[in-house]
Each structure stands twice: as C-alpha cells, then as structure tokens.
Amino acid sequence: MKSLFLSLLLVSILFMNSFSEVRGRKWKGEGTTQNLESIFIGRCYDYIRIVNPAVGEKNCLELWEAFRNAFINKHPCNILPKDYELFIKLAFHTIPANKSLFWENNQLLVKSFTSGARRYMSLSDALFGFVADFLIWCGQANSTGLDYESCPTMEECENNAVDSFWRMASITYAQHSSGVIHVLLNGSAEGGAYPVKGFFADYEIPNLQKDKISKIVIWVVDDIQGPDRDSCGKNTVKILEDRLKALGYDVTCTDNYKPVLFLLCVDYPDDSNCILSSSAPPAQRRPISSDRGGSWNKLMFVSLVGFLFRSASVY
Ligand SMILES: *[C@@H]1O[C@H](CO)[C@@H](O)[C@H](O)[C@H]1NC(C)=O
Ligand SMILES: *[C@@H]1O[C@H](CO)[C@@H](O)[C@H](O)[C@H]1NC(C)=O
Ligand SMILES: *[C@@H]1O[C@H](CO)[C@@H](O)[C@H](O)[C@H]1NC(C)=O
C-alpha cells in the first residue's frame, strides 16, 4: 500500500515536471547554445589570430553585433538569408583556389580531413562558418533576449535563424569557390550519398560559378564495416554526376578515396581495409601487439641501415 502511494507520488511529480517543461518550450528544437556570445567572439579571435591569420584583421565585436541583429527581436520563423548579409560582408574572405570541400552526411570526418583549413577549406573552415559551427540560436518577437529553452526546427519553419544562416553562408561559399572543387560524400548514408534535397543540392550547386571552376572531384567513402549503399556511377551519385555534367562541368568520381579512408581507419586499425601494404595477405599482417612491435623494430632497423648507408656514401 505504501509503495503504491510512493509510486503514484513519483508518477505525479514526473508528470508535473514534464508539464512545466513543455509550457516553457515554444518549439521542438533545442534552445540557444549557452554562452553563445562568448563562443562566437572567442572563435572569431581564435580564427583571425591562430587558425587562419591570412584573412587579415576583423572586428570580432562588430561581427557579433551584425550576426545578432539578423535574428534578434524578430519572430524566430521570420529570419531570411538576406538578414545575415551584413554579417557575411564583414566576415568575408576569399576561399583559396582548389581548397573548397563540399560534403553531406559526414561532418565530423570533414572536420578532421580539412584539418582546420590547413588541408582543405570547407565552409566550417572559413571564418563565416567557423564562428557558428555546431551552434544553435534564436531570438523572440518583441524581446532582445535569446530563447535558451527552444528554437524552431526545419520542420516547424524553414525560415528559422539557424537554417537561414547556413543557406546564406552556403550560397556565399559556393559563389567564391574556384579551381578544383572537391565533394566528399558518405557511401553508407541512408537514402543515398547525395541527398537530392539538401544544402549542397539546393544552395551550393546552383551558386557555383562555372567560369571559375576547372574540375569537380567527387569522393564517395563508405564507413569501415558499414553498408555500401552508394558508389560512383550508381544511384544518387549517378544523379549528381549527371547533373554536374549537364551543367558543363568536368567531373571525376572515386570510391573510397584512400586518404579519407585511412582517416576512418584510425578507429578500425584491425580491419582488412586498413592495412597499408598490399603485398602481405591480411591474415599474416593481423596486428597483434607483439607483431606491431616487430614491424616497428623492423622499421627502425631499415631506417638505421639507410642512415648508415647514406653516411657511408658521404665519406
Ligand atoms: C589548382 O589546381 C590546378 C590543377 O591541378 C593547377 O593547375 C593550379 O595551379 C592550382 N592552383 C593553385 C592556386 O594551387
Ligand atoms: C555515414 O552515414 C551513416 C548512416 O547515416 C552514419 O552512421 C555514419 O556515421 C556516417 N559516416 C561518417 C563518416 O560520418
Ligand atoms: C509585438 O509587438 C507588436 C507591435 O507592438 C504587436 O503587434 C505584436 O502582437 C507583438 N507580438 C508578440 C508576439 O507579442
């Protein structure tokens, strides 16, 4: 009897909690990221001082004001890409030729592959994407406050603060990409590697400047031990290749491009796809720890012999 009473009490407390939570939340999506302003301004200084000082001097406080004014004091479903125009204008810098990398469905992989603009410069490695990467934000009508409780999702309204921002940023990034353009797609993604509706399809491809682009290189990389749902010349990748060719681009496509595959191998050192040398059969090379020590010793030995040989030939 006592335990029944306690259970009922517990259930009603849980019910009341979720009820009050629902009351405070206007939207289905997560609310504004805590400390948004500090993160934004800190990232901006990090970018111009450490990550990519080549972009030159920027006023990070002014950038924040321009960004904030795009969505503050407005209904969170009434934000248009052009509301971020001033922010983009202030944050803009050129995207180096041959460095553009477009992607879908593999954000974290892209992050390690571009290596903070050192190797490639995806949108998130340009200042105007870098400051907002992974963040959520929205304001509210008739208030200068941010909504930390909830923000509208894409399903609730298309013209929300975050999606309109990325639309504007994607358009700008595509317009200023030049030379050899790279596209990294996930061959294990559900529904196909190339989403026929998505940022790349809807805002980036239509804004590429044909006369500035020499070639489009597509890489379709499957997850290690993941399904091979899509490949060059098949399914949605074929749709993409055909679309780009019809637009007059020189297009190449490579499945499981090695440099990217090897990044994935960091998490699967024992997988047969992750063995560097093709001369030894996988079974023999299975890296148990003592064997790994063996390879390392062999490597050291070979380096030492090479060194001695070079030294000898100098004298
Ligand atoms: C971009 O790549 C093309 C083709 O590989 C090359 O001819 C050109 O010099 C490269 N441009 C830059 C700025 O690296
Ligand atoms: C590729 O897509 C699958 C399915 O959505 C996902 O589980 C996986 O993490 C993605 N791979 C990468 C490298 O992001
Ligand atoms: C905001 O203020 C305007 C004008 O003062 C008013 O018409 C509108 O109903 C208000 N909106 C909300 C959500 O309170």
TrEMBL record:
It comes from Anas platyrhynchos platyrhynchos. The keyword ATP-binding does not apply. Keywords: Disulfide bond, Hydrolase, NAD, Signal, Transferase. One of its GO terms (cellular component) is uropod. Residues 1-24 form the signal peptide. PANTHER family: ADP-RIBOSYL CYCLASE (PTHR10912), ADP-RIBOSYL CYCLASE_CYCLIC ADP-RIBOSE HYDROLASE 2 (PTHR10912:SF4). GO terms for biological process: positive regulation of B cell proliferation; regulation of actin cytoskeleton organization; regulation of calcium-mediated signaling; regulation of cell-matrix adhesion; regulation of inflammatory response; regulation of neutrophil chemotaxis. GO terms for molecular function: NAD+ nucleosidase activity, cyclic ADP-ribose generating; phosphorus-oxygen lyase activity; transferase activity. This is ADP-ribosyl cyclase/cyclic ADP-ribose hydrolase. Belongs to the ADP-ribosyl cyclase family. It is an enzyme of class 3 (hydrolase). SUPFAM superfamilies: N-(deoxy)ribosyltransferase-like. Its EC number is 3.2.2.6.
